[in-house]
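Quick question, first post here. What does this chain look like in 3D?
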Amino acid sequence: MVMLRGLKTDGKNLARKAGVWSLRQYLGFALKTTRWTFLVNERAWPLLTSQNGQTAVVAFWHEVLPLTPALWWWAEPQNPHIRLHVLISRNRDGRMIADVVAPWRIWSIAGSSDSKGKNKGGAAALRRMRASLRHGSLVAITPDGPRGPRRQAQQGALALAELAGKPIVPVGATCFGLHLKSWDRMIFPLPFGRGVFACAAPIEMRRQKAAEHTDQQATPAQQLEHALDTMMHLAQTPVNAPLPSGYMREKIVLRPLSLMPSRVWQVAATVLSPALPFFLRWRQTKGKEIPARVREKMGFPSQPRGSGNLLWFHAASVGETVSILPLVLACLAQKSDVRVLVTTGTVTAARVLVQRLAHPRVIHQFMPLDVPRWGKRFLDYWQPKAAVFTESELWPNMLGLCHTRNLPVMLVNGRMSASSFKGWQRMGPVARRMLERFAWVSARSDEDAQRLQQLGATKQLETGDLKTAAPPLPVDEAELARLKERLAGRRIFAAVSTHQGEEQQIAQAAKLIRRDNPDVLVLVIPRHPERGADLSVMLGYVPRRGAGQIPTEDDLFWVCDTLGELGLFFRLAPCVFIGNSLPGVLGGGGGHNPFEPARLGCAIASGPLVQNFTDAFRHMAAGVTIVHNAQELAAWVRDMFANPSRRQQLAQSVQQVATANADLPERLAKHILAQIW
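> Answer (accepted):
Ran it through. Tokens below.
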């Protein structure tokens, strides 16, 4: 019996899904093949398209409900940031309507006016609609719905407009179709016909006391009814008839706006998806994936979601992960009922996150590869309320899926290097479709902001680099004291985030430094710790921190190939060279984050290849020394050892820059949380 009941339920669900799909296909076909004319009052147009953040209550009679997706298709292309919520009844028919229109990004708020002592969700719906209006969404409502009487305005629309302090835009519509024998004589559109929308000037509804009304004065409900009936009459007039003063006419063929940035990318990722598990298996053999968690990169979760609102942060690698930690903590502190999902792309970033942010309301997962089916699986399970991407993490399929679900997406520390900008310019339409619908973008610098704006990021907040807002790197004080005792009397210099192609030059510089400073110890800290063993061999089988080895007095080098200990090394070394920046480095260079050593009072040198951090190095120009080869690097280190006051002056200069935006995470957290209501 239990099995039969289960099969019966499954059958009903399948039939319902088939019915919703069929109705959506037909309705979309009928509306897309209709030749539409829009008669819009010039004062209503900026409200219907939500220009400059303006919002309104959009009111129409229940009988035109099937036609209203066309109004949305007209408005949405004019403002990619627009969002629409519609009040739809909680009954079975209402839920079916909500499912039909949801893929067109028309989001329902369930509820209707309470009546006869029954709670139909009216009060809760009213609160949600008010919040939507205050957060920049349009809200559509049928004043005579869901059960009539036909063309008689109830109090819901009036109460909402007054409560939110927003105007009402009355809308009328008609098209070639049938009038059903329902209580509202609903219009059932037929394809290949003509249709008209008429949108009146906005009206302000102010509730008046009963004693204020006279026999000649219409009530607010009567005013709304009159405006809606007038628009229905205007929609039924001949298409080329003279328009009332202040109206504009537009003839257009409509269709739902596609939000997937690139169909080519979408198809290519789908076609390649069967081979990607083998690619992930290959990465496992290289130590670049965690075998027990590799399925996360296909969208499968490995942890429970939990209940409540979930904020999703994505940071690709170590630098981005470290930069968002203060922002994540600020969001958690400002909203006690919010949980945070942090996704990363690399194993190293995941380990850093676990070391630096152990919080009961933080979950880590690996970001799925940019395959539509995998991204959909990821979003279906986690259901975030908002997504925050970091720096230059722009994945067309995932962003398209977020936009399709009307999920607010934000970009923090937005970075767009000159080379990346040229690449995205060659794919201008793809970049525009990705960026124009971002809720907002906070660029790392004015230069990045300008490039992002040219690519399509129209709504931008103040610029500011989160890497200047992070707290100093943590340290194990006991271990710091132990190492200071073991290394007492030695001059220490650190080369951090080094790459292949420049480490030979660093070794050459170390030998030059040793001529004048025989007690020098050079900490070589590779960007990728897994290279530690090979680097030790290349430098002459020198001790490795990752193997638990401590340098002796005779050792010139110490390979520091561990994770999460930069705070320790920067406190040991008063002068630091930042790698991936010398001519000859493999991969073309680009530099690394200079803020971490600067924040701890280190004097800093770098090679000239710093294109990935141009703005940061420009702001620190007075305190950072640029060297071009081993000889110049050795000369700088000798100078820093010989002139402590000069070294301290340079360190203080960069430290001031590195701590300039201490309140940036708090400000951005407020903007992020404003997207959740």
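The two ends are 44 Å apart (CA to CA).
The first helix runs from residue 2 to 32.
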